Amino acid sequence: MARWQAGAQDQLEQAALALFLEQGFAETTVPQIAARAGLTTRTFFRHFTDKREVLFAGDEAVPTSVQQLMAQTPPEVRPVPLILTQLGPFAETVFGDRRDMLRRRHQIISTDQGLRERELQKMATLRASIVDGFVQRGTDKLTASLVADLAVVVLSTALAQWLDSVGPMPLSTAVAEVLAAFRRLASEVELQAGP
Amino acid sequence: MARWQAGAQDQLEQAALALFLEQGFAETTVPQIAARAGLTTRTFFRHFTDKREVLFAGDEAVPTSVQQLMAQTPPEVRPVPLILTQLGPFAETVFGDRRDMLRRRHQIISTDQGLRERELQKMATLRASIVDGFVQRGTDKLTASLVADLAVVVLSTALAQWLDSVGPMPLSTAVAEVLAAFRRLASEVELQAGP
DNA sequence: AGTTTAATGGCACGTCATGTCATCACAGTG
DNA sequence: CACTGTGATGACATGACGTGCCATTAAACT
Q1: Are residues A182 and A153 located together in one domain of the fold?
Q2: Do B28 and B116 reside in the same domain of the chain?
Q3: Same domain? B80 vs B169
Q4: Which domain holds residue B131?
Q5: Among A102, A188, A194, B120, fewest CB within 10 Å belongs to which?
C-alpha cells in the first residue's frame, strides 16, 4: 500500500467538497474527510489551517497575480484608469474558466456563516494586496484604499451576477456592466456638491 | 450570596474586555471570563453565541437604526444623495460619542484574525440592512447593492481615519473628508468612458 | 548500501460549543 | 404565609476543533 499517494492535498480537497455537498459543511467532520481521502486527521491540518480553509485553497495565487499585473502596468497609468481597464481581463483570467466549480463552492459557502466570514476575509486579503500594489506605485494611502475598495466591490458584484446568470455569459461582460452602473452612480456623486 | 447578580451580560462583557486587554484574546479562555464575572462557562454561552461575539454586543442596534433613518427620509430622495447627506449624521449619532471604547476594541480586534473576520461580517450585516432599506424604497437591486457598498466603504474608511487621528476630531468631519476624496475619484471614473 | 529529507501516522491535550437536567431566585396568587 | 410557575443559572457529559510532540516510513541523494 503506497503511503505517499500523489497529491494528498488534492485528495483532501475533493473528499471535502464531495462530503460538504452530500451532507453539509457543519455536519461533516474532519476525520470523515481524512478517512475518505485515505489519510489521517492530523495530516488534514498539515495541509489546511482549519476546516474552512479547504474551500479556499488556491486563492493564495490571486494576490500574487494582482502584484504581477500591477507591476507590469506602466507607472504613468493612474489608479482609477488602471482598475477600469485591468479589472475585466484580470477577473477573466483568474476566475473566467471555472464557473461551475465556483458555483458549487458558493452553494456551500452560502449555507454557513463561518464560511461567509472566511470569504469576506479572502476579499479583504485581495483588497490589501491591491492597496499594497498602489502604494508601491506611489499612490497615497487614502486613494489606494478607496480605489482598492472600488475594485473589490465591482469584482464581487460582477462575480455574483455572473454566478447567478444562466446563459454562457463571459465574466468580463458582467464586470463591464457593473462598471457601467457604477459610472452612472459616480456622476450623481459628483453633482451632489459638498458644503 | 445572591445568585442573580444584576446584569450578567454586562459583567461578562467587562470581564472579557479586561482580560483581552491584559493577556490577549487567544490567551483568554471562556472559563476565565466566566470566573471573573462570577458565572459559569455555560452561562457565558447563553449570552453570547461564541467567544468573539462578546466584543460586538450592542451592534444589533446599528441595523435597526439604519432602517429607521432610511424609512424617515422622504421617498423622493435618490439613493446617492441619501447616502451623501445622511451618512455623516448617522455615523456621528451611532459611533460619535464612544471613540475611546471603539479604540480599545479595535486594538484587540487587530490582534486576531478570527476577530477581524467577525468585524467584516458585522460590516456585511450593516451593508445588508442598507440594501434592504433601499429595496424597500423601490430602488433596483443592483443600484441598492452598489450604493450600500459605497456607504460601507466610506464609513469604514472614515472610522479608520477617525480612530487613528489624535486631536478631538468629529467623526462627521472624517466622513466629509473621505467623501470629498471619493468625489475626486468619481470624476475620474466618469472621464474614462467605456468602449 | 547508507544517509538525509520530508511527509505521514499516532497519541495526548486543551479549548470551544452544545445538549440536558437539576437547582435556585423571584413574582404572582390564594 | 404557603403554593406555584417562570426564567435564569449551575453542573455534567459530550463531541468537534486544532496543536504539540515524536515515531515511522517513503523517496531522494551520496
Answers
A1: yes
A2: no
A3: yes
A4: 61-191
A5: A194
pLDDT of residue B195: 46
Q: Domain for residue B3, yes or no?
A: no
List pLDDT tens digits, range B146-182.
Answer: 999 999 999 999 999 999 999 889 999 999 999 999 9
Residues in chain A whose beta carbon is closer than 8 A to a beta carbon of chain B?
A: 78-81, 84-85, 113, 116-118, 120-121, 124, 142-143, 145-147, 149-150, 153, 157, 161, 176, 178-183, 185-190, 192, 194
| Beta-carbon count within 10 A of A58 CB | 11
| Grid cell digits, residue B51 | 467567544
Q: What is the pLDDT of residue B2?
A: 40
CATH code where residue B162 lies: 1.10.357.10
- Please state, in angstroms and rounded to a whole number, the distance separating the CA atoms of residues B49 and B37: 17
- Residue A176: its chain B contacts at CB < 8 A? 194
pLDDT digits (tens, 9 = 90+) for A83-94: 999 999 999 999
Asked whether residue B182 is assigned to any structural domain, the reply reads: yes
Smallest CA–CA separation between B75 and chain A, in Å? 17
In a domain, B47, yes or no: yes
Residue A164 lies in a domain: yes
Which residue ranges of chain B lie beneath pLDDT 70? 1-6, 191-195
Chain B positions with Cβ closer than 8 Å to A: 78-81, 84-85, 113, 116-118, 120-121, 124, 142-143, 145-147, 149-150, 153, 157, 161, 176, 178-183, 185-190, 192, 194
Q: What is the DSSP string of A60-104?
A: THHHHHHHHHHHHS-TTS-HHHHHHHHHHHHHHHHHTT-HHHHHH
